[in-house]
Amino acid sequence: MRKVGVVHSSQEISPSPRRWGVFPVHEVSFTQFLTSQYRTAAEHLGFSPSEVETLITELSVSLSPWGDHPIGSCPEVPSFVSADGFPAEMSLSWRSHRPELRVLFESFGEDATPAGCQAAGRELTDRLADRDGVDLHRYRLVEDLFASEDPRVNRPTIWHSLAWRPGEATRYKAYFNPQARSTDPAAVLDTTTEAVERLGLGRSWSSVRATMPEMADRGNEIEFVALDLVGSERARVKVYFRITGRSWEDLDSVASLAAGHDPARAERVWRSLYNGQDKAEGEEPMVCLAFRAGAPQPEEANLYLRLTGNTASDEEAAERTAGLMRQEGLDPQAYLDVVEALAPEPLAATTGLQDLLAYRTTAPGAPADVGTYFRFSVYDQPVEP
């Protein structure tokens, strides 16, 4: 009989992959760390030195002044962006076989309070008005719906992101939280509806609102609203839904509201990532519906599928993502190079660096858009809900 605690093997058992405190960067500033990660990714994607320097400057200015503060050993104001309270994430996507590099972040205020974060976010929006290509008209139409007189921890009000593709100007986006004032589903729906109608998209939103009773029964929740900060007619309004039931059927019921969603292709991706299971583990997956002026319904659905909790390590997450990219006709080598370069340890030793895989179909037969979201676990434990 095998004795308890005795391992009959010539090799030691490897410890479980580590998720928390993977990046020991407490002494450096937010800007130093994030620009270093951004530079690493941009260089491994083959961006030119001049492009990289321009991007680093734009990101540094966007993170100012709070980005100069040291990261510290625990978050002063836990951010909802990451499970450990770190206020930023980086993502990489391929659309039409071209890479796009993005950073999403919540601004911090001079005082370490949710109100300070909200004020800093609004102030950054004002500063963005001077950036080439930025248009704040639509933002001004709805900002008052989401700003709160009493912001709370874990109920962020305003976030931002910047995205860049070779040969294009940097694009900015603002994110709002319709739960900032109330988490009551009826109030959240009313706030979202008012925002979408002010933005002139009431007709296409009505096709979604009609399904909200069914969504509520399934446990699908409105999470965020986002705006492209550009004046183009192709500018999007995006509404994000959290799929609390974690099942393929629940996720597809939201995604199928979009004209470009291909259920058969998306289901193959789901079952490939989740080993044929109907239900995902860990944190909830999400769906983002994208609305544009003149369309009778949402045009696109982006699926955000959790890798953390559904893969044993970042190594396995990278393998599954690379396999999906090959299925979609994408060469995964640049992606794999970026993952290896960003990882502070061997990929088999960590989990959570690659938190989400994004998948979006736009037209029958066209390659899907594929993306991955990087979370930088700098703190030693998750934030208490």
UniProtKB/TrEMBL annotation:
Keywords on record: Transferase
Pfam families in UniProt: Trp_DMAT
Signal peptide span: none
Which terms does the UniProt entry file under GO BP?
Answer: alkaloid metabolic process
Record keyword Transferase present: yes
> What's a Gene Ontology MF term here?
transferase activity, transferring alkyl or aryl (other than methyl) groups
Note the InterPro entries from the entry.
ABBA (IPR033964), ABBA_NscD-like (IPR017795)
Cite the PANTHER family for this sequence: INDOLE PRENYLTRANSFERASE TDIB-RELATED (PTHR40627), PRENYLTRANSFERASE ASQH1-RELATED (PTHR40627:SF4)
Protein name from the UniProt record: DMATS type aromatic prenyltransferase
Record organism: Saccharopolyspora rhizosphaerae
